[in-house]
Fold this protein.
Amino acid sequence: MTPRFDVERFGILLKPSPRHADVLVVTGPVTKQAAERVKRVYEQTPDPKFVMAVGACSISGGVFQKCYGVLGGVDKVIPVDVYVPGCPPRPDAIIHGVVKLIEKVTKGG
Amino acid sequence: MTTVNVIVGPVHPALHEPERFVFKVDGEVVVDVEPRIGYVHRGIEKALTERTFTQGLYLIERICGICNVAHTLTAVQAIEDAFGVEPPKRAKYLRTVVHELNRIHSHLLLLGVTCELIGFDTLFMLIWRDREAVMDVIEMVTGNRVTSAYNIIGGVRRNIRDHEVSEIKKVLGTIAERVKEYKKVFAEDPTIRARLAGAGRLSRAKALALGAVGPTARGSGVKVDVRAEEPYAAFDEVPFNVVVYEEEDSWARLMVRVDETLESIRIVEECLNKMPSGPVKVPIPEVAPRSSEGFSVIEAPRGELIHHVYTREGDDKPLRYRVRTPTYANIPSACEMLKGGYIADIPVALVSLDPCFSCTDRVALVDVGTGKRVSIDLRTLARRYKK
Amino acid sequence: MAEEVGEHVKLIELFRKELEGRFLGYEYDPKKRALKLLVERSALSNAFELINRVSDGEYHFTTITGADLDGDDIELTYFLWLLPQRLRVVIKASTPKEDPRVQSIVNVTPAANLYEREVYEMLGVRFEGHPKLEKLFLPEDWPENVHPLRRD
Amino acid sequence: MTLPSLLRKAWSNLFKRPATVQYPFKQRLVPPPTYRGRHVLVRERCVGCELCVKVCPAFAITMTVIEGRSLPVIDLGKCIFCYRCEDACPRGAIGRGKDFELASWRREDLVVR
């Protein structure tokens, strides 16, 4: 996708709609306004589906914990398969997360 | 005349960020624009008054991932203003270096995104390749690629070492060469000119009246650059040129950024050459030493950024913290420049603003509606995290 | 430097002459080249007309900060940059919390539109004469008359 | 750009090293020494002063009783890797680490203790 760090090498492609996707990547904290929509998008994604939470914000809310608009981590709304900590994670850390996810998929997670 | 409402956003491939615009169109021509922002609003200003000054700094840093250095720099300057402390000179130079490195990477990012948007993928890849080198330098100096956590109240966190100085100079030397090459492409390539010239017009008078900032204003011939007008950090001692283009369109705004990247590279080199010796931080009090207010205005990559803070004596939290980000100031101009244009020009005109709506809503590295669509998420991922 | 110093003095003189009793004081910081002017809330739009006149329309409107401090007032701070004078102007006015109303300056300074909306939303200050004083950031289902940045 | 110069560029690029990093299977990336990665806690040095808990902007550090002593535990899911805790620690019990490969299947694994 970008010149230096490329996950298309693993056969991962961007899709314009959750209906065409297998993996959802959540990168930000879930706001109260967005929670319902996240759930809806998750339901729209066909099975089997996997969720990656990238960054401290999506795992727990990170620095945004205790802000009035923020619900917290995404795992309060939908199940998460792989957590990638960091704020923000290095691109290679995200790739490491992708590899972890592939491991999980091949093992039948 | 019958008009049709076209709603773009909050999740739209051309926006990359969750905002909504309602366009009233007549045929292909946009007649009126109504913005609705706030999809990622989460009350940072309120949260800041509930955290100590140092804790708040890390929240401020995450208002915007791309221009995080600009935000912390403004914050520490505003708080120093309120506290009445003066950072050491070397710290000011180091702040300038990191601030300008941040600007270089931000401008390269936007130039790349624009190229991708107009279908010029080769140039996108080339520019982003060079951007990686800048990110590496930032990581070397500060300890992280994106959120650098470098500026603190009273100075900077880390000193710079000699081998780092020579590394920065080496990297910037190659990048300067390449950017000069890209400048030729941007200036002469017929596809770029055909797509960008004339799109998203914003006249000088309108830019002034609507309070446009940064490259948006300078692309319309308004000569405002906080670095030159109200020198902060080390800008009073480092000479540089304010880039102004008179064409008033998307192309001019892009060219401003290309030229500014070159200027920034020069500023960094100048700073490194002139770097005074001495300490990089001074001790600061934990609690506010006086009831006061302070403000700081700086030129962030996207334009004028202002932080305004009220303190109360003996309190370790700010009484009120106000942030006005550049994109927020540019929204009225954005609406203006879209009026009278074609629907097809909307993405080009919007991207030429380098919109950063997270900033506007005062939130952090947030992606499009938090996982709404994979495509956009991965793109945001690419844009935001792969830096 | 001599004529630069003159600029802020000229502006202060003008304010004093035109606004008379509604001009409450000033403060000048030569290091930041920032001039702070205190005016009555009823004089706000006159103040901006004056600014418009001295700068010939060549000024950049930065922002409005609304702050609910501990007292009974909400303090409004208007930041401006005058291009010809190269001067940072900070205009301050305050309005009582009980009756937070000030004149809108949108007709003089269109750039203030969004900022006035934001201050209205966050602090509940009514800007009289604003063309469209509506919500900007908060969700549509946010209750009326609840303003997140108010202390109470 | 003219066609000849384009062709020359394309030709010379054929022999250059690709920009893409073959992480993680063929190439390992080593972050610079200044990188802020997973913390290294030195239990022997900790005196349990809780300064790190107070300064943490992300509320990621909690004091937990381990082997009869109250020791800091960092939740990496909350941590924003600012290393404020390292600065604050008077005894140097929190150290820098370069490890960035922290991804995990389970939330509970994301702790440094």
Remarks:
- The interface with chain B takes residues 32-33, 57-63, 65-70, 77, 79, 81, 83, 86, 88, 90, 109-115, 122, 135-139, 148-149 of chain C (CB under 8 Å).
- The helical segments of chain C are 2-19, 44-55, 113-123.
- Chain C has a mean pLDDT of 81.
